[in-house]
Amino acid sequence: MAGAVTKRPETNPSTKSHDGRGTDYASLLRAAQGGNHAAMERLLMKAQEIAYRFSLLVCGHADDADDAMQEALLKTYRHAAQIKEPAAFRTWLYRTVKNACLISRRKRVDEPARLHSLDEVALAPDGSMQRIDVEDPGRRPDQVMENSRLRQSLHRALQTLPPENRLIVFLREVEGLSTREVAAVVGISEANVKTRLHRARLSLRQHLEGP
Amino acid sequence: MKTSASDRCRALLEQLSKYIDDELTPAQRRSLTAHLRRCPCCQTMADSLKHTVETCRKAGSARLPADVRTRARARIATLLSSGAAQRPRT
Predict the structure, then answer these.
(1) Residue A51's domain spans which residues?
(2) How far is CA B81 from CA A33, B72, B78, in A?
(3) Tally of structural domains, chain B
(4) Among A61, A177, B4, B45, which has the minimal tally of Cβ within 10 Å of its Cβ?
(5) What CATH number has the domain bearing residue A45?
(6) pLDDT tens digits for A152-177?
(7) Do B59 and A151 touch (CB under 8 A)?
(8) pTM score, whole prediction
């Protein structure tokens, strides 16, 4: 068997806070706090991107995505200057997005009928759903199709998880937070995150790969 | 008391996430990899769980659709150009 899966770029939030895409949030925040306009713009875009993915994958309400993005944008802008520990910014950002999405959800009385795959839907300006772009640079068409199939399978599998476990999978696997960061965002112990993540992985494996 | 093969497999299953996340001690890792070499069932399970985790991680590569990105940029421009944006609350 091959070794562990590729490690995340950074797993210790006490030193730096990267996401799985190489964003160094702490440096970005410091630059924004220092008056760097471009850094502030990037930070505000990141906050909205996270709110969008969260709305689709965790809450399952694409209709709420714009509200959640707006809320995340304003909260990030208003509070970015107050954050004394840039290394803790990413945790704060995800907690803020989570709360923003939950506030959007509370405005509705219905529960999500289903989760929406990042690969299959997006919110159009008229409120309808449309397919969204997926970044697959340099991939052959058959690989793109295979990845699309996998993501749709993942979407279906995610629906079967309890909401809190779905949130943990989203934060840890999709967004690349460390276990410690996930624990801080969700408000449970690291040990509990690990236990729930393991159970969620086994459940997802069964749905994705069969018994 | 001697541990049965199924008990060992069950114990291994509980360690697989730590194995995938590279959180096992060197001794635990050696013991686990030795078991995987001898047990095709556990080997298959470990491979498929690893594949599941990789599939989840690939899902994070989706970009915002163009129209959503455009609206997000417009919100930022509006916010930063507004009077409130000149003096963020401290």
Answers:
(1) 25-132+139-209
(2) 17, 14, 5
(3) 1
(4) B4
(5) 1.10.10.10
(6) 677 778 888 998 999 999 999 988 99
(7) yes
(8) 0.75
